[in-house]
Amino acid sequence: AANRVPLVVNQKPLIEDTTVAQAQLVVLLNDPNRWRQAFELAEALSQREAALCWQMILDQWQKLHSDGEKIMMLSAVARTEYRFAHRVVHLGMTDASLRVQNRAIGYVRRMALFDPALDFSAYLQWYRQVHDDSRVQVVTTGARQLDLSIRNAIQRADLTEMNRLIEFVSRHQLVRTLESSAGSQFNWPDLILEVMAKVDQVLHERGADKNVVERADETIRYCGRILRDLKLSDDDLRQKILPLTFSGNPRVQYESVVLLSQAKAAWAFDRFSQLLTDQLQVSSEKVSYSTIARGLARIGDPRAIPLMIGVIDADNSRATIFGVGYFGLMPMTGVEHDESHDGNWWRGWWQQNRTRFSPDVQRMTIPKIDISITPNAKTTRAKQ
């Protein structure tokens, strides 16, 4: 019976006899090529024989001698929903091997949403508190504490602490934990947007300090990464991100454009088009031509082609020839980028190739865009 493969339903073990399952688990744990199957069975078994299952895993850990075997076990545990995963990870945290410890640190970060590498005493205190909890309870507790810590930092307008917490979430890719069933009860998109708003406020109040400017810019960049990973709903993009494209903060505006670009938000076409032409009216780019052109290309609306040609033709600097030509027109037309492809070249291309597109696009003319900035300012932007 111990050598039989357990019945599976939807690729998950089905426990019909716990005695047989326990014997099967011993067999699997001693086979280095069947770790994943072992821990899927352990997860199912733990729902009925949790204490016994944990003892079996503990006994098996004590028989492992190489770092590779221990790391393999930690990895197998972390990729399942095993009820006592934090206990197994604790074995790694307290192992004599630094390699094993470092792997365990990463798993604690994902489960507990704090960094045990910074304070081992705090980690031990946390482990004593959650020892008898389930993995879901562990994640919920960590998410609640993270949510509270971020809100406290916002309330105090503590830029350093906001930066530390947001960087931690972004750098260690903790969004998957935040979106899990245990972590999703908290409104992370709104909280991250609150951080961006508070950082922007702090920047306005203390913007003369170079260190504040750099820290604020970095924090907003991390916020943008987290929001992209959270995969916002269409309503959130329309109601909360689109308004940020009007922000006076270049970093906030940039992150909002990238978010909408990643989402291929077709309804943002008009706003992207306006942003692209707006760049011609300022002495330095708030959001780069390449960022906006890439967004229009991702949206994939061919109406953007004559508009982008008009933008290049109005400026004819490297900023537009490369920024719009390479990132916008090349993916939309299939034409390989070349530095000689200025506005005049693209006008000729349009006349020869416009019939490739639908009748409503064929009828479009290349807009004549006037640049209102001074020649000196235009030269400065071209150099930038």
Provide a compact summary of the structure:
This protein is mainly α and 384 residues long.
Note the topology:
Elements: E1 8-9, E2 12-13, H1 18-29, H2 35-61, H3 67-78, H4 85-93, H5 98-112, H6 120-130, H7 135-156, H8 159-171, H9 175-178, H10 188-206, H11 210-230, H12 234-241, H13 250-262, H14 269-278, H15 289-299, H16 304-315, H17 318-333, H18 343-353, H19 359-362, H20 375-383
Describe this structure in words.
The protein has 384 residues and is mainly alpha-helical. The chain has 20 helices and 2 strands. The chain has a two-stranded antiparallel ribbon. Helix 10 runs antiparallel to helix 11 and helix 11 runs parallel beside helix 13. The N and C termini lie far apart (73 Å).
Features:
single chain, 384 residues, mainly alpha, 67% helix
Number of strands: 2
Low-confidence stretches: 1-14, 374-384
Q: Helix coverage percent of residues?
A: 55-70%
Q: What global shape is seen?
A: elongated
- Radius of gyration, in Å, reads 28 Å
What order do the SSEs take from the amino end to the carboxyl end, as H and E? EEHHHHHHHHHHHHHHHHHHHH
Question: Which structural class fits the helix and strand makeup?
Answer: mainly alpha
Number of helices: 20
What composes the largest sheet? Answer: 2 strands, antiparallel
